[in-house]
Amino acid sequence: HRDRLSADIGRARRFAEAIAALDGLTVDLTRVQTNIVRFAVPGMGASEFVDRCHALGVHMLPSGRDGVRAVMHLGVDDADADEAIGVIESVLRQPRRN
Known about the structure:
single chain; 98 residues; alpha+beta; three-stranded antiparallel beta sheet; 3 helices
């Protein structure tokens, strides 16, 4: 699937730029050079954030206390990426668990 990897990289960049604009996340856009997007959720634990996203159909991996890893791949199209952005925005608006 190397022929279409550039589409995944472009999708990852667009996804990263969109979530970087959301309050509650930090994204180092200079590090988004592949189809992998790493970001932090400093106000919420990564596990809680990922669990909430997962419950809404968006699958990502926690990485440390507040780090999250998202991957754009063959099974993710533009509509999926847009939906993921919406889910992330929704989860960030939810009250935090104690």
